Amino acid sequence: MASLNSSLAIATQSLQAQELEIQTTNNNIANANTAGYTRETVTLSEATPSQDGSVTIGNGVSIDGVSSVRDQLLTLQIQQQTSEQSSAEAQVNALSQIQTLFPSSGASLSSSLSTFFTSLSALSDNASSTADRETVIQSAQALVSQFNTISAGLTGPASGLNSTVSSDVSQINQLTAQAASLNHELGQQGSGGQNSGPIGDQLSQVETQLAALTNITVTHSSQGDSITTGSGTPLVLGNQSYALSTTTNSSGNVQVLDQSGNDITSTISSGDLGGTIKVRDTQIPSLLNSLDTLANQFATAFNAAQASGYDQNGNAGAALFTIPTTVAGSAAAISLATTDPTAIAASSDGSSGGNGNVAKLTALQTSPLASGQSATAQSANLVYQIGSLTQTATTNSTSIQQSLTALNNQQGSISGVSTDEESADLIQYQQAYEAAAKVINTIQSLFETTIDMVVQN
Predict the structure, then answer these.
(1) Regarding beta strands 55-57 and 50-52, do their DSSP bridges make them parallel or antiparallel, or are they unpaired?
(2) 16-48 residues labelled b (16+ CB within 10 A) or e (exposed)
(3) How far is the C-alpha of 248 from the C-alpha of 454, rounded, in Å?
(4) CB atoms < 10 A from the CB of 372, how many?
(5) What is the mean pLDDT of each run of 10 residues along the chain (457 residues)?
């Protein structure tokens, strides 16, 4: 049966509920500009009513708790896009440095090839000219130096990229240890694995930072968040973190190992770590292979053309370039076999002033090599290759950043704090609080009246 006591209890519950609403709103306003803060709301529900005969009597309000407003699917999308953005940015930074080795104008491999063939063409007019022959040797040396310099420029960045891999792994381990600690705190608070409140905000920020470093998968459970790499390697399970480690392979590259010592380098596909590994293990080797192929095929073909003619002394043409027997390492190892100007096999008949073999030598500028492309075309393709890789990474970075900005704006509209909305809510809660207080005052007056009636009787 309804009574003044039950009415007082309902009014008191209402007062407590509105007080919590006001406190939560105040906290939201205070953290409106706090990075990573997620708006909190109070969840209220109708208390279980009482049955008095055929009459159902309400029992006021129940406070279910305070929770943070999060869209887990949106958070997952942001983490994925953050990983892709960081990967693209890492590629842009590394490739932009490498691109300087392949200028489209000025001192370049293409210009060195062109200069070399131009100097050879001059022998058609005067194959006996010592000055022209010396120019050929000088331009050949400049071409060799270009191959050597570009090769060194491609292999050199590996050291810096290896340092980035080691640094990223160290940061990942620090963040996973922090995530495990936050999971432990969530468990102690009995939050049931829901990422709500300040700890949930911190955990979400840690996970976003992890996503910027490598591809991760986050699973929410009653034991907190489980975090694995995209390939399933565990990083955090409950309050336990699993550290990654590094080792150096026979090629001198830093490899990433899981907690069991398994090499997972090839499974890391995004984040700063994934982008760095992609440049180091895929893109640079591809460029270096193209450069080595050009150096090897060009030198082989030119030496063969030399062998078909005769030098200025009437001897059969000898190799002008020295190269390895394998394609790999050709650009780094290519060198001049001789610096003797008379060694240029310009003659086709053995006469000292003959120029019949010059046409075969200069034809290599446009004739297909073993790859099916001329030396000039292969050189231009190298410029295109590095330019295409850089442009693709840049385009991806810009596109993903736009998508990420849109997702963050969408998240802000859901989880962010609007001071206008909070101020309006504050007025509503204040009015409800005042109304509950008025009910309590009314009940108090009724109690006093009832007491007076009993005393008078």
Answers:
(1) antiparallel
(2) ebbebbbebbebbeebeeeeebbbbbbebeeee
(3) 92
(4) 8
(5) 72 85 89 87 84 75 83 89 96 92 81 95 92 96 96 89 96 96 82 61 92 93 83 91 95 94 94 96 95 96 96 95 95 96 94 92 93 92 92 94 93 87 89 85 79 69
